[in-house]
Automatic annotation (TrEMBL):
This is LamG domain-containing protein. It comes from Methanoculleus frigidifontis. It comes from the Archaea. InterPro entries: ConA-like_dom_sf. The lineage of its organism: Archaea, Methanobacteriati, Methanobacteriota, Stenosarchaea group, Methanomicrobia.
Length: 236
């Protein structure tokens, strides 16, 4: 007769396998790029002033914003067209070479919505290392997630943004610290609906004074995962 104690591990394994697992309970990887190919081949569009660097958070390579000689030069964005209308989380690592004192500094994460007038400014590292976003308002000023600096120059920081499409809100974290949430609206004030796709854009550089050294961002280990309705992260 077989010892029932010997069968116990098999019975437990069978019971676990018998539990129905819903696919909606598993985060779905939508996009990942650590830049280890040394190229931008995983990006649908490349801005004109980005390059590959060996100054990486992990592995051999990362992406670096190449700040040119123009003041407030536009176009330093790389883009990934996700073509996805569900809720998702964007996370990765970044660092800046300095923190400026004018308007924008280092990194920004944007969303592009087809048919909308302007971009969704989800996260910006602004003067002194504070975290802001830029939704429509009469003055055009940044709104703040952090009134005090949370970013330090020449150090790697982790960022995360959750786009909750069922509630049309976004939530932001830096170094796993929850900073707050805001409605999903473009810079011109247009509402972003549950059926609108949000393409991922990541930019770098800043507004700086003539003759000053511009701020430049390095990004690495970018990951985008789908999240299911009702899922919340700590602090949200």
């Amino acid at each position: 007769m077989m010892d029932w104690h010997a069968c116990l591990p098999l019975l437990i394994a069978a019971a676990v396998l018998a539990i129905p697992v819903s696919a909606t309970n598993v985060p779905l990887l939508l996009f990942e790029d650590s830049f280890e190919t040394g190229t931008f081949e995983n990006w649908d569009e490349i801005g004109c002033r980005w390059g590959i660097t060996d100054d990486a958070h992990s592995g051999d390579y990362a992406a670096v914003c190449i700040a040119g000689g123009e003041v407030d030069a536009p176009g330093r964005q790389i883009t990934r067209m996700l073509n996805y209308t569900g809720s998702y989380r964007v996370e990765g690592w970044f660092k800046t070479n300095k923190l400026g004192t004018l308007t924008c500094s280092g990194l920004y994460v944007l969303g592009e919505i087809p048919g909308k007038e302007s971009l969704l400014y989800s996260l910006q590292v602004i003067e002194g290392g504070r975290i802001g976003y830029n939704q429509w308002n009469e003055s055009g000023n940044h709104r703040l997630y952090s009134p005090k600096p949370v970013v330090r120059p020449l150090e790697w920081h982790k960022f995360a943004i959750c786009y909750y499409r069922n509630t049309s809100r976004q939530s932001v974290w830096i170094d796993d610290r929850y900073l707050g949430s805001a409605p999903l609206r473009t810079l011109s004030g247009e509402t972003i609906g549950p059926d609108d796709s949000i393409a991922l854009r990541i930019g770098g550089g800043s507004t700086w004074a003539p003759g000053d050294l511009p701020d430049a961002a390095v990004i690495d280990d970018i990951r985008v995962t789908a999240i299911w309705p009702g899922m919340r992260f700590i602090g949200s």
